[in-house]
Specification:
The complex is a heterodimer of chains A (about 200) and B (about 350). Chain A has about 200 residues and is an alpha+beta fold. Helices cover about 60% and strands about 20% of the residues of chain A. Chain B is about 65% helix and about 5% strand. Chain B has 17 helices and four strands. The chains are: A alpha+beta (about 200), B mainly alpha (about 350).
């Protein structure tokens, strides 16, 4: 009897462990751990003054790229109605140009933070919904602070990835979508794609 | 800033006339007796109930008793002339304009596109052998269903003033690049950041009554207490508000509350979008809130005809000098600047109201 109970106990324990291992990857904690790690490593790169800005950019890209689901961001930014107006070829072109723009503006934003060594980061209480986690982050600079909100979604194989970021309440996806709705109300898809291209590379001083 | 200046002039005039009409030396009198005073001054007897005579008496009285800063009046006329010139120039140029199609035109366009796609791609075979469709690894439309939190940004925005708003966005844009930015850059070059930051702190500290009242109106007790603590500390230890020891040493963050947020808190929607000259994006609710907040600004009650306008101008200018480059970055990133500013403003306000 004792052996049976012992065996049951062990089974239960193993089951627990197995269960824990299974849920570990898609637990909301994993998303926050990923975010913390990414932000810390980006700050480490920014603080490393030995690197040139090009090297910094490459290093940050290597950290950030796996965390963002760029394709999904591009798709959601265009919205269902506009997306269905694009043929497969146009969709490919759109995603490519849009992601380039997104990255460029991200690095411009990062460059702003660069000078501010005293930036401290506070993590707020995360909100969990099925398969999604929203993590509020407050970046406090010397005389001002910025409220961010990183929105993660979980997918098998890829794990937690970001599908939207809010900066002071302004969602990237939502603001791009309202712009695309406006632009595509009066322009053709090709014109829009062309406009994306001309603005692709912002002038560097 | 100058719109605020005009606001002050208007308010000053309103105050002046309301004093004349309704009170003598602080004693409130009835409108009838006030009118009688005016008639007596204009040598019109009330018994002569001739409307045109009464109107002439009123106009004459108002004209004779108007405030008379003659030199300023000269400047004001010049300023209005310049503003008119600037506006003409602005409206005549190519604005950030689009002429959005009507929604049925849009639907027609959608149908056309769909038809083209249908014609271009042969779906017949896929339809015939649909037994494999279950193996499509993902259907992208699932994702739109899954992430439907952004769908409200697809709804047509109620923007009856979009023509005016776009023109005003262009006006503000040119004002920034032609006047504000060069001046602010020069000012920033000769004034250390510490000084400009202190000036900014000073003006933010003056905004305490408005923030406090709005915290109270929104029943945010803790924020009201924090704001009061900040005001007391910064006004004393912070040298009349030039420094911000409350945030720097004690970590008490400011709470940006205004009357527009208070109205939103109690369920009032934004109304239509409205781009204000000099001040940028706003909406009906927040523009109204701005006027109410003006009455809570101590600067508004200070002596001197131009004190309010000057101080608000200095504040706005100093603020701009601390934020050079931000607007440029937004402008670079935007695909449609006006649509972006409108959407970002509304989102940002929604967040502030939620908090």
């Amino acid at each position: 009897m004792k052996k049976l109970i012992g065996a049951l106990f062990i089974l239960l324990l193993m089951g627990n462990v197995a269960f824990a291992e299974k849920t570990d990857a898609d637990a909301p904690e994993a998303a926050e751990a990923l975010l913390r790690k990414s932000i810390e490593s980006v700050f480490d790169v920014l603080k490393n003054e030995a690197l040139t800005s090009q090297e910094q950019k490459e290093k940050i890209e290597a950290i950030v790229d796996p965390v963002f689901n760029y394709e999904l961001i591009a798709m959601l930014s265009l919205g269902r109605r506009n997306w269905s107006r694009l043929d497969p070829e146009q969709r490919e072109v759109f995603v490519e140009r849009f992601v380039t723009r997104l990255k460029d503006s991200y690095f411009e934003n990062i460059a702003m933070i660069q000078g501010d060594a005293e930036t401290n980061v506070d993590y707020g209480e995360r909100e969990v919904e099925s398969g999604r986690v929203h993590i509020p982050v407050r970046a406090g600079m010397k005389d001002s602070s910025v409220d961010m909100r990183y929105k993660f979604h979980f997918s098998e194989g890829e794990g937690w990835r970001i599908y939207d970021v809010e900066i002071n309440g302004v969602s990237i996806v939502a603001s791009y979508r309202s712009q695309f709705n406006q632009v595509l109300a009066s322009q053709s898809v090709d014109e829009m794609l062309e406009a994306l291209k001309t603005l692709e590379a912002p002038e560097v001083e | 800033m100058t719109i605020r200046a005009y606001g002050v002039e208007f308010m000053d005039a309103a105050r002046f006339w309301s004093c004349r009409l309704f009170s003598v030396d602080g004693f409130v009198k009835s409108p009838i007796s006030a009118l009688r005073t005016i008639f007596e001054e204009s040598h019109v007897r009330l018994s002569t109930l001739n409307p045109s005579k009464i109107a002439r008496a009123l106009i004459l009285n108002f004209y004779l008793c108007r405030p008379k800063p003659t030199f300023y009046e000269f400047i004001r006329v010049g300023r209005i002339f310049l503003a008119a010139l600037f506006l003409t120039w602005c409206f005549s140029g190519p604005a950030v304009a689009y002429s959005p199609l009507e929604s049925d035109e849009l639907e027609q366009k959608d149908r056309d596109t769909q038809q083209q796609v249908d014609e271009a791609v042969e779906f017949d075979e896929f339809d015939e052998f649909d037994e494999f469709d279950g193996f499509d690894d993902f259907d992208e439309f699932d994702e739109f269903d899954e992430f439907d939190e952004f769908d409200r940004h697809d709804e047509a925005v109620f923007d009856p003033l979009s023509g005016y708003n776009r023109a005003m966005t262009t006006f503000n844009d040119r004002l920034y690049f032609w006047a504000v930015k060069p001046a602010a850059t020069g000012y920033a070059r000769i004034t250390p950041v510490l000084v400009r930051q202190s000036v900014n702190n000073f003006f933010r500290n003056l905004g305490y009554p408005a923030r406090f009242i709005n915290c109270i109106l929104q029943l945010k007790g803790e924020d009201a207490v924090n704001e009061t603590a900040r005001f007391l500390l910064n006004s004393t230890a912070g040298m009349a508000g030039f420094f911000d020891p409350a945030r720097d040493s004690l970590g008490i963050e400011p709470h940006d509350e205004d009357f527009g947020q208070t109205l939103g808190r109690y369920g009032l929607g934004g109304g239509f979008h409205l781009v204000l000259p000099f001040l940028g994006p706003s909406n009906l609710r927040d523009a109204t809130g701005l006027v109410v907040d003006m009455f809570m600004d101590p600067v508004f009650y200070m002596e001197g005809y131009y004190t309010g306008s000057i101080s608000w101008t200095v504040d706005g200018f100093n603020y701009a000098s601390l934020h050079i480059g931000e607007y440029e970055r937004i402008k670079n990133e935007a695909i449609d600047l006006y649509a972006f500013l409108r959407n970002a403003y509304e989102q940002n306000r929604e967040k502030k109201i939620r908090e």
